[in-house]
Give the backbone structure.
Amino acid sequence: MKKYFAELVGTFILVLFGCGTAVIAGDKVGIVGIAFAFGFALIGAAYGIGPISGCHINPAVSLGVWSAGRMKTGDLIGYWIGQFIGAILAAWVLWLIVSGIAGGYNIGASGLGQDGWGPGYQGGYNVTSAIIFEFVATLIFVIVILGSTQKSAPSGFAGLAIGITLVVIHILGIHITGVSVNPARSLGPALFVGGKALAQLWLFLLIPSIAGIVAGLLFRLKALEAD
């Protein structure tokens, strides 16, 4: 249970600080600032809870670890439960915070940093662009995670490598989908925003999950596993 609770805490940190920066300070810090908020939050969580759970804080990452043969199915389910609860709690806390702004907060109009695509969302990219970006970005992200945490990788640096990768992914992708690469991160805000965010949630649950499995299989089949 300690591992699952650690995943809850880590996912809470990622979603609160990443989405929170986008919602509260996005107009001040811009895309690069939001990207660093997500990356730095992950790095902090990695060194905070990594020794307990490995700091997946992402159901797609856990799927990758599982398909690589590094995790049992029972733990996979426990990690998912912790991750999704952590993301939902973070979105709720963020909603409570922004609701205190003078004049009130219109969650339908301003959102909670939810992901999406199409007309009216960020750059207006279509669903094909969203699918391609989310698959490729998640695949690369999980490859970096599995590669930097394998036995032959330098110890102590995985958190930095993973966090920096997440920063770069956000710099590239915020205008495309808002960047999910993480089903839990997408679910939390979408549940509170509802409407279009909830209707488009399927993509951010499905595509990163498929990419995570593919990345794990590349290591399980020794295509990227160090000798």
Q: What stands out?
A: The CA atoms of residues 23 and 44 lie 20 Å apart. The chain has nine helices and no strands.
